Amino acid sequence: MAKSPDISKKAIALHKKLGGKIRIVPAQTVKNRADLALVYTPGVAAVSTLIAGTKQTKKPLEEQQQLAREYTVKKRLIAVISDGSAVLGLGNIGPYGALPVMEGKAALFKAFGDVDAVPIVLSTQQTDEIVETIINIAPAFGGINLEDFAAPQCFEIEARVKEALNIPVMHDDQHGTAIAVYAALLNAAKVTKREFRKMRVVISGAGAAGTAIAKLLLLGGVKDILVLDSKGVINKRRKDLNLFKQELATITNPMGVEGDLSKALGGADAFIGVSAPNSMTSDQVKLMDTHPIVFALANPIPEIMPEDALQGGAAIVATGRSDYPNQINNSLVFPGVFRGALNNKVSKITDEMKLKAAQNLAALVKHPTAEKIIPGPFEKGIAKAVAKAIK
Amino acid sequence: MAKSPDISKKAIALHKKLGGKIRIVPAQTVKNRADLALVYTPGVAAVSTLIAGTKQTKKPLEEQQQLAREYTVKKRLIAVISDGSAVLGLGNIGPYGALPVMEGKAALFKAFGDVDAVPIVLSTQQTDEIVETIINIAPAFGGINLEDFAAPQCFEIEARVKEALNIPVMHDDQHGTAIAVYAALLNAAKVTKREFRKMRVVISGAGAAGTAIAKLLLLGGVKDILVLDSKGVINKRRKDLNLFKQELATITNPMGVEGDLSKALGGADAFIGVSAPNSMTSDQVKLMDTHPIVFALANPIPEIMPEDALQGGAAIVATGRSDYPNQINNSLVFPGVFRGALNNKVSKITDEMKLKAAQNLAALVKHPTAEKIIPGPFEKGIAKAVAKAIK
Q1: Which residues on B lie below 8 Å from A108 (Cβ)?
Q2: Would you give the end-to-end CA distance of chain A in angstroms?
Q3: Which ipTM was obtained for this model?
Q4: B40 is catalytic
């Protein structure tokens, strides 16, 4: 990447200077005994009793949770939790390596969505322990953003935590990505004059993001979807699939296509890469339908560089990078999703909310063009538009 | 308590208005792509790699932890953790009732010690689960303040977490209280012209606070200590003691005293109450040595009201209340302890540090008098003085 060594040096220096990218500040000054009596003892005891009742006559748990969402940080606090098993493109580097990313995410939560978020990184990568730990620490939080958990464990972890808690839980690598991709694809279809639901979409990558994108597109009515893992197109004949890929084989690939990426791309309307750098060529773009859509989202080095995709005939190219047009980034999504969930005291983020969020995000681009199918991260009103969908 | 209903109403209204007593703010603004590239991707990847190495060549865990204490929030973030099993005087009201207290504590951490602290409340009260959960979430934190865990489980929980982690772990109800009491007692001995180590000290209450006070006084060289639980003086002949009280029976009560509070108080120099409201009378104060010291710390209603203690002949009276002289409060201690631990990258808080912290706190009162044996919570330099001891 251009200037990457320079950015690396600057980033390291900044992190050293800051020593942590977030700060905790009191919402109310504590300057004298009168403040202390309200913020802490004895006044706080009245709030504790209001929420919980007394030890003899405790209020029902559900009622306590609702009251905590009015009178405590549970009203506003999101936990950004990772086990460090799939951090950025760096892979399984563990909790300490994951921490700067989670802090960064907490900073973006505030900057983009006015959401208070705290980073939590786990010293375990055992699914049962992860699930138990997250459930055990949930009471103080109004929502849980799971982040950088590796597939396929991420699917079970999210499902179990979501089932156990009545606060919104979202694995952002799955659903944040899927919502952003869906929004961009809606506008890309519009620009290339395609009927969204009738597109043939090829998704390269069957991990957290690829799986969630496939499922959200299916929910939105797209029927002809092929998903590839490193062994090729996922289909019912393959014997090497884990449970989650077996499910993909059942719900995608209605024609039973077999083979590699080139085979899959024949006549495809759209390619969505959430896989590996430099894994696609211009010649492969030429195999697609005319004026195809190419989302090469591997980051920082995409499946195919935009100039090469365009040379292969792509009508629209999107990446995860800020130095090319059409940056598809989760930061368009997660601040608004949790802002909306908190505003509306939502207990689960449903499929319908995700679809609506994608539609709202797409609609922010009034007149989509080939170089503008998705808002830039610093445009106004993004989190607000997404938040409106989460209710 | 005077005006208590009024304080309760005001506290409830304030908590409703605030919806959480802390906020999370970015340490660095994120206003444009250049900011984003340093705080988040791609720049953050360099910091992650600096800390963790790569997935192929991970750095040793110890080295990762040290680097995280320089480049991440681990440098500054304290978790204030409770299971809600012993909240204030309210007892076992659970995590939701505990949350406003933990938030308040987080606010005080910042106000008094410039320490960034986040409240975590647990939905489990099982010792094994608590220990595992705290260990699992520890990587993001530079220290753990355990709070309002009930005795005797609190002893095992603290010991096991402390053993497992190489960041400071302190159960404040034990050690924060013990340090504050020790400091006040040092000055009370000075004012009443007693030799500190030769005092006979009676501690009413054998829970978290009473046990820790007894142990810290022993460490400081006080030899004649009696501890009482609800059944009377703890001694080796009693058959009803749990493991922790059996230990107290071994290390205190060298004369093998048996009996109730009145029996224990005969000739005592100091009484320290960390037990139940209204559990001591003026007549019992009269049983003590002349000019005795009375710390009645049950809160908000003390073991004996100051006016009654004085009537019984007490030379010095301290309580946990802000509306009487000599308020002994943990807020004098915990912000400084963790400020010092963070400043000096301390991995364990040792007994020596606690003693030194108490001495530093006592020394802040240049000329102790009967009505001034301990600094008020809003005096300057308290956290700094305590912090100097934690290295």
Answers
A1: 30, 36, 39-40
A2: 40
A3: 0.96
A4: yes
